[in-house]
Design brief:
Helix content: 25-40%
Oligomer: single chain
Structural class: alpha/beta
Order of helices and strands: EEHEEEEHHEHEHEEEH
Low-confidence stretches: none
């Protein structure tokens, strides 16, 4: 069974956390959801982000999500792929050197990495997107460019693959995003 590591945290986007977590499990993958300074059985809060015609997304309380693995015990070598959901969690997760080291280890070994919405903030912080074509939530465009990547604007229900990276702007892209991530995992 292939194993996927999901690095998540408080106020991750609810759909971007739960939908891929459950969908990948339903497809037969083992998904270990971890958060720095937390262990299996600990809970994180999620936030629901929606597009309701305002200049930016709205935010509402989401569900609590129970982690199923210990962050301190994970090693990139034990996994076939990495999933980084969006929401607000990436803005603080990118400050954790252990998170950055894990992301770099997946990249250094050319393992599939899927990142959606604000998740590419973690890719930027890990300095692994130079010369890559990357999508993200549009508000992340400046930091994607500053990190040396080409920001690719795609429709909210689309995704893009460049090498070992699959990125998308937001949760409406789940079908295409997960299809592209699975294609990379099947090549690995």
């Amino acid at each position: 069974m292939m194993k996927i590591l999901m690095i998540t945290g408080d106020f991750v986007e609810d759909y971007e956390n739960m939908v891929p977590f459950q969908a990948l499990q339903a497809m037969g993958y083992q998904v270990d959801a971890v958060c720095p300074n937390k262990k299996a059985g600990d809970v994180i809060a999620t936030a629901i982000h929606d597009f309701e015609g305002h200049q930016t997304y709205t935010e509402k309380p989401g569900h609590n999500f129970t982690l199923n693995a210990d962050f301190a015990a994970v090693r990139a070598d034990d996994y076939d792929g990495l999933y980084l959901p969006g929401g607000r969690a990436p803005e603080y997760l990118r400050l954790d050197e252990n998170v950055i080291s894990l992301i770099k280890a997946f990249s250094d070994n050319n393992k599939p990495i899927a990142s959606i919405c604000h998740g590419p903030q973690l890719l930027s912080a890990a300095n692994i997107i130079i010369g890559k074509r990357i999508s993200a939530y549009p508000a992340c465009k400046p930091e994607i460019i500053l990190a040396g990547a080409e920001y690719v604007s795609v429709e909210m229900d689309q995704a893009i693959t460049d090498g070992n990276l699959v990125t998308a702007p937001a949760w409406p892209a789940h079908p295409e995003f997960l299809k592209q991530f699975i294609a990379l995992l099947n090549k690995a």
